[in-house]
Amino acid sequence: MCGIVGYIGLPEKTSQHGALDVLLEGLRRLEYRGYDSAGVATVASGTVSMRKKSGKLANLLSEIEAEPMTEASVGIGHTRWATHGAPNDLNAHPHLADGDKLAVIHNGIIENFAQLKAKLVSTGETFASETDTEVAAKLIAQHFTATGGDLTEAMRLAANQLEGAFTLLAVHADQPDRVVASRRNSPLVVGLGDGENFLGSDVSGFIDFTREAVELEQDQVVTITTDDVAIINFDGSPAEGKRFSVNWDAAAAEKGGFGTFMEKEIHDQPKAVEDTLLGRTDASGRLVLDELRIDPEELKNISKIIVLACGTSAYAGMVAKYAIEHWVRVPVEVELSHEFRYRDPIIDDSTLIVSLSQSGETMDTLMAVRYAKEQGARTLAICNTNGSTIPRESDAVLYTHAGPEIAVASTKAFLAQITASYLLGLYMAQLRGKLFQGEIDDILADLHKIPGKIQEVLDGGEQIRELAREMAQAPSVLFLGRHVGYPVAMEGALKLKEIAYIHAEGFAAGELKHGPIALIDQGQPVFVVVPSPHGRDSLHAKVVSNIQEVRARGAKTITVAEAGDADVVDYSEQVFYVPETQPLLMPLLTTVPLQIFACALAAEKGYDVDQPRNLAKSVTVE
Ligand code: M6R
User: Can you name the CATH fold of 460-613?
Assistant: First the structure.
């Protein structure tokens, strides 16, 4: 939540693209992290210039156009997801202090801000905004004066007074040769240039300018100048960052000819699955998951797996449960990260915690992983963002290779997470001798056919888009599924809620008769995710009965079924067929029509598909 960018360059470097251009380009790419307001501050000729505006970045751009800023080679920029204070101009970042010579931006929540503010007020400080950030700005300003004008030390001293989660960036007119930042429980990466350096909430903040980056650890302060990156810990001791190269380029984070990022990312899915499968076997076809830094012996002795995740990632976790339990014969629990650590869970060193997170920064999941580690569990992250906090703090990581996901509504990351979970399950089954090599080979071969099959679903997308246009006025849509179709149903409902603002619920089809069937009225649209007729027969037959039950009560039934499934035709207003695959792999196909449906319906209603109201891409607050 909140996108943060910082830049410093030699004047001749900056003249190539302009500091303001670098900041605004970074904000454009980071806007998915929050879009309640945006702002920038630059330092030139001994003064700080600032522009900030509520609403999307476009409002800030108009503001700057109306009142241009002077040329500068150092500055900071912010795009906000509001926590403290309404999303208005006043609460927008940056916040100024020290006679407007210091500008500060912030991501996170400063939990002790009220106490700190009360103290500052008692010493005569006044505040212009309702934010916790302004408290940090005042503290940095006080320390700046006390240290005789040392912004790095001022930042370090202030950071030590703060509790909670924060990334702070500051520039000061009296020390214009640097941008200083600190981080605790909130993301920050450094971009390395030649005669220029960058800061960003994630690498997309500077991907247009460099792909060389440095990860920071917890509780560190970093000072970037034109030719140096200096890192210290909060206790003042020197530290080294870990260097890495970003393995995707700026073009991967563009819309590629599609109207929205979400559409583009839905169409990226064949590649996301293919890339996630890439290079996972040795010459003899055996799975080798190189990034897994957990000793295979330990994985053999795991007695229970707990999957932790939120939102869409949690639905991927539910699919993982069905597959891993079936293949590995180890119990798997799936739990929302924010519920997990408040219920005194039973964990020990034979428990494997598998966290699923696209961003790798979701605070609820990070806190749950930390808690599980403290209790002695082994932790493995399935993550899409290289160098992010959750994989860094986990014992092992299995990266998904979906590429950057910009739209707030997760699509390709979901399919990539499911794919990686399958790989983990098959790897554990291989290690523990629970499946014959031939069985693993067959499943892998079918997995490798999935990208082509997703493409077939995408190619037939117009039928779904047409239905979405017809249904744009539906006040409520229900989704039903059984077995692996159940999490798919919930994911279909979540997509519709978050981008089309339509009331939607996903139910286990068997649960219907225990209450939800009372919701069915004449014309109520119900999507049903139908299991393969080639799986357990009883499962398919039961879902067909469920379709009949809702239809008999007036529902408009829309089914997503396997190609050739004739049993659903008589009971469906419309059928969307997906190609045949193994029953456990079906979510990789049945999810796609539901994503297309939600995306098209939101577009039909004229909503901002990529940046839905009230949401942000990375939820870095608890
Ligand atoms: O980055 P993560 O995968 O940890 O994010 C988890 C959820 O916040 C995320 O999946 C959210 O539910 C999406 N907006 C759903 O489309």
Answer: Rossmann fold (3.40.50)
What is the Å distance from ligand 1's center to 354 Cα? Answer: 16
The domain locations on the chain are 3-246, 257-457, 460-613
Task: Report pTM.
Answer: 0.86
Distances from the Cα of 385 to the Cα of 181, 290, 373, 462, angstroms: 21, 17, 21, 32
| pLDDT at res. 15 | 63
Which ligand 1 atom is nearest residue 359's CA?
Answer: 1
Give residue 6's identity as a one-letter amino acid code.
Answer: G
CATH class of 257-457: alpha beta
Pairing relation of β-strands 37-44 and 238-239?
A: unpaired
Question: From atom 4 of ligand 1, which residue's Cα is the shortest distance away?
Answer: 357
> Which ligand 1 atom is nearest residue 615's CA?
14
* Domains 257-457 and 460-613 fall in the same CATH topology: yes
3-246 to CATH, choices 3.40.50.800, 3.20.20.70, 3.30.70.100, 3.60.20.10:
3.60.20.10
> Closest by alpha carbon to 30, among 248, 208, 201?
201
Identify the residue with better confidence: 185 or 471. Answer: 471
Q: Whose CA is nearest to atom 16 of ligand 1?
A: 409
Confidence of residue 14 (pLDDT cuts 50, 70, 90): low
618's CB contacts (< 8 A; 6+ apart) are 1, 33, 187, 201, 202, 359, 361, 362
Q: Taking Cα atoms as reference points, which of 80, 75, 74 lies closest to residue 93?
A: 80
Instruction: In whole angstroms, give the CA distance from residue 477 to residue 516.
Output: 12
Catalytic residues: 2, 617
The protein residue with its alpha carbon nearest to ligand 1, atom 12, reads 311
Pocket of ligand 1 (CB under 6 A): 310-313, 357-359, 362, 365, 408-410, 494, 498, 618-619
Pair of tokens at residue 354 = 């598998």
What's the chain's Rg over C-alpha atoms?
25
Beta strands in 246-402 (DSSP E): 304-309, 332-336, 351-357, 378-383, 396-399
Looking at every residue in the chain, the average pLDDT score rounds to: 94
**Backbone conformation region of residue 501, classed left if phi is above 0, alpha if psi is from -120 to 50, else beta:** left
Q: Is the peptide bond before 94 cis (omega within 30 degrees of 0)?
A: yes
- The amino acid sitting at 301 is N
How far apart are alpha carbons 140 and 481 in whole angstroms?
Answer: 54
Question: How do 229-233 and 220-224 pair as beta strands?
Answer: antiparallel
Using DSSP bridges, classify how beta strands 164-172 and 229-233 pair: parallel, antiparallel or unpaired.
unpaired
Q: How far is the CA of 370 from the centre of ligand 1 (A)?
A: 19
pLDDT tens for residues 565-622? Answer: 999 999 999 999 999 999 999 999 999 999 999 999 999 999 999 999 999 888 888 8
Pick from 18, 3, 95, 7: nearest CA to 56: 3
Query: Given this model, what pLDDT does residue 537 score?
Result: 67
Q: Please state the atom number of ligand 1 nearest to the C-alpha of residue 495.
A: 16
Q: Report the residue among 417, 619, 621, 622 best suited for mutation to probe ligand 1: largest number of ligand atoms under 8 A from its CB.
A: 619
- The mean-pLDDT minimum among 77-86, 116-125, 443-452, 577-586 falls in 77-86
